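If you are new to this repository, start here. Below is one unmodified record pulled from the training split, so you can see the exact layout before writing a loader.
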Amino acid sequence: MQVFVQLLITGIAMGFIYALVGIEYTLIWNATGLLNFSHDKFILFGAYMFAGTYVLGLGLPPILAILFTILTMFLLGVVSAFVIFNPLSKLSTNLFAVIGTVILGRIMIESVRLIWGPLPFTLDNFMRGSFHFGSVVVSKSHLVIIVVCSLITAGLQVFFKATKTGKAMRCVSENKTAASLMGINVPMNIAFTIGLSAIVCATIGILVIPIFNVELQMSSMIGLKGFASGVIGGFGYLPGAIVGGILLGVVEIFGSMLIPSVYKDCLSFVLLIIFLLVRPSGILGNKR
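And here is the target side for that same chain:
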């Protein structure tokens, strides 16, 4: 039972990480009708900005470093919206926008390599240690991930349903033309959505530093599994991304007890293929 509880907590923590990636995909997809194939690079850039610039470079305490990282990534997202997403989403085909996001990702990863270098590093005292609940030992990083991700997902739900800006974002996701006719500034709304998704990516990058360290490939697999969680839960539906992410994290952790852990990543993509064949709309897709 002790091992079961510890594995369950680990699976839920990683599932929330995948869920946040799925939420980021959902935000941009609903706002623009585009897939952001550079989202894992936003995660990478956020982690490097936090650890490499604000903590190690400028010596800021973690709280201030987090605030400055969130602000920087929001501005980066807004600039990306006006330079790439808004202009390219107006073209006759989405192919150009997809290529634009791929190129943006390459620019970001090479910028990381030039600014911070190719060598990995970590933050020694950041979210390290563990908590003891009786005989159960829970990693501090996993517990923080669960709490922070739960607050973010709950906050986003409240934001979309209870605020004027959130309701405007939902209107844009349903019909951009109708939203524009009702007086909503669609380009600014899309820019805010991209900025919000960049904040989510930065949060993911910060949270996984104790697990993966800070290195150039830290976000690649997270990005793929986050996309899988969105499809499994119901692509384009925010609660579906949450359900899909948690399911994926739990299956992955407990599956590693049955097969060698080096192959556990395959479980996520096998599960994705099964859902594409059996239920392509996802678990909650029909509730969109």
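Two things worth knowing about this chain: The chain has a mean pLDDT of 85. The radius of gyration is 19 Å.
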